[in-house]
């Protein structure tokens, strides 16, 4: 099997994922998943699509992450892995979609408007 690549995005984070046959190693920016994401919840989030399809030990994941924070990066990586798994076997798409791993979360930070303290916040109103 050749290397399958896919892209995942979330907020401002971008994950380029390269999936190949292997023993289940996850490498992110040349670091292990435990080094890159020390929190167990983030490691779990990344491995969710592999665990759902029960192929965690069959594929090696190499990923390049940039932009965003650690939560956005973890969710971008999850989307990238799910898209790569669909490229390998299209029949898994319905299972991944039901779990919500195929849908790209479109929520982005709203920009700050001029003359205001934030995107929606206004300065305190004084009647007199």
Please provide the ordered H/E string of secondary-structure elements: EEEEHHEHH
What general outline do the C-alpha atoms trace?
Answer: elongated
Radius of gyration over all CA atoms, rounded: 18 Å
Number of domains: 1
CATH architecture type: 2-Layer Sandwich
Mean pLDDT: 94
Number of strands: 5
Number of helices: 4
Largest beta-sheet characterization: 5 strands, mixed
First-last Cα distance: 74 Å
- The CATH topology: Ribosomal Protein S5, domain 2
Give the percentage of residues in beta strands: 15-25%
* Helix proportion: 25-40%
Class derived from helix and strand content = alpha+beta
Are there runs of 5+ residues with pLDDT below 50, and where? none
The CATH class name reads Alpha Beta
Numbering strands along the chain, what is their spatial order in the largest sheet? 1-2-5-3-4
């Amino acid at each position: 099997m050749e290397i399958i690549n896919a892209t995942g995005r979330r907020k401002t984070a971008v994950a380029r994922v390269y999936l190949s046959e292997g023993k289940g190693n996850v490498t992110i920016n040349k670091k292990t998943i435990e080094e890159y994401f020390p929190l167990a919840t983030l490691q779990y989030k990344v491995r969710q699509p592999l665990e759902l399809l029960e192929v965690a030990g069959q594929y090696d994941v190499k990923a390049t992450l940039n932009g965003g924070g650690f939560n956005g990066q973890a969710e971008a990586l999850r989307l990238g892995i799910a898209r790569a798994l669909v490229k390998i076997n299209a029949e898994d798409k319905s299972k991944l979609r039901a779990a919500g791993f195929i849908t790209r979360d479109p929520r982005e930070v709203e920009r700050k408007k001029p003359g205001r303290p934030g995107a929606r916040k206004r300065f305190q109103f004084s009647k007199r």
